Write a sequence for this structure.
């Protein structure tokens, strides 16, 4: 366990400073010119797109509004800037809303019964159509939910006519697996350290097998040391017999989250959300080589520049170095895949 002073430092409040991030600087510099160029060419940006950018440039800045928070005990005060609460562009708000929504569903919506997850994927041309036509998306969701509900009711031996009903929560992910320009799928295996929030690796491929997972983890174990436990979802390449057998041989415990329960892997899901929002959704990779270069640069910035509120405003690498100085005989114990 880290020293008490390390815990106190990590839990102290530090205002998020988006204006110091590379993404914010790029948007603030180029977004106005981008809009002007579109208008001069006779085009336009949809209102919801402009709203996303405009709100992002105000997110977390005190001059655009804040709350004054005072501790009743010590009377210490903090100014907490308003956030944009957007999901489409802002990486900070997008990840936070995802975690908060998951917690709300678990604590206040889902009853104490088994939950089944269904995933429906559309070809990319249809995804663009549904994103541009909300009415069509609503109609499609109604058809899908009705079909699944009817199937589940019949599986239980009941009928819709008898009054049997099922409950459902629908979540829309507008972007699925990444692609390169030739429309070939780009698979990403992400591995993070839950304690330091450090992104240890993002490995790319057209497909990722169990043998690939073993090879990647073996390299990480040699570089960072063997963890006590690995937490992951139930992807076939992660739960296959070969991976389980190899991890058991290495004396590494596994914690596979329950199917359809991404909130049980909050650190990994938060990292993946930020990765998709700030990297994958912003690039059309022309080749696998370009994807590897861009994603490697993104991971370097994530680990060495991007501040984390949960780490006392430090980036993962600085937090790790500070922790090692005071805890040289210990090491973090959980990797997340």
């Amino acid at each position: 366990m880290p020293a008490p002073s390390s815990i106190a430092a990590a839990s102290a409040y530090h205002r998020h400073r988006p204006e110091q991030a590379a993404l914010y600087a790029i948007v603030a510099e180029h977004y106005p010119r981008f809009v002007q160029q579109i208008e001069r060419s006779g085009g336009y940006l949809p209102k919801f797109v402009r709203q996303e950018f405009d709100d992002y440039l105000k997110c977390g800045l005190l001059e655009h509004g804040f709350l004054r928070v005072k501790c009743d005990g010590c009377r210490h005060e903090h100014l907490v800037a308003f956030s944009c609460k957007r999901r489409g562009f802002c990486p900070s708000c997008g990840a936070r809303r995802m975690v908060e929504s998951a917690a709300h569903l678990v604590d206040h919506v889902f009853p104490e019964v088994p939950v089944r997850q269904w995933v429906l994927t559309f070809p990319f041309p249809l995804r663009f159509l549904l994103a541009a036509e909300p009415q069509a998306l609503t109609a499609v969701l109604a058809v899908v939910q009705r079909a699944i509900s009817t199937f589940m009711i019949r599986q239980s031996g009941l009928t819709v006519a008898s009054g049997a009903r099922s409950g459902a929560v629908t979540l829309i992910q507008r972007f699925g697996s990444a692609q390169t320009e030739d429309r070939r799928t780009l698979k990403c295996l992400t591995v993070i350290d839950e304690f330091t929030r450090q992104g240890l690796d993002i490995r790319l491929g057209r497909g990722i097998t169990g043998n690939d997972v073993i090879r990647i983890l073996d390299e990480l174990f040699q570089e960072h040391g063997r963890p006590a436990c690995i937490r992951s979802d139930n992807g076939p390449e992660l739960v296959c017999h070969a991976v389980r057998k190899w991890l058991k041989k290495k004396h590494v415990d596994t914690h596979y989250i329950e199917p359809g329960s991404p909130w049980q892997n909050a650190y990994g899901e938060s990292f993946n959300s930020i990765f998709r929002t700030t990297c994958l959704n912003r690039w059309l990779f022309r080749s696998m080589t370009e994807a590897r270069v861009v994603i490697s640069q993104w991971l370097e910035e994530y680990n060495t520049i991007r501040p984390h509120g949960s780490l006392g405003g430090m980036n993962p690498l600085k937090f790790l170095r500070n922790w090692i100085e005071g805890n040289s005989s210990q090491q973090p114990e959980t990797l997340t895949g």
User: Anything to note?
Assistant: The longest strand covers residues 185-193. The chain is about 45% helix and 10% strand. The first helix runs from residue 4 to 11. Confidence is low (pLDDT under 50) at residues 1-11.
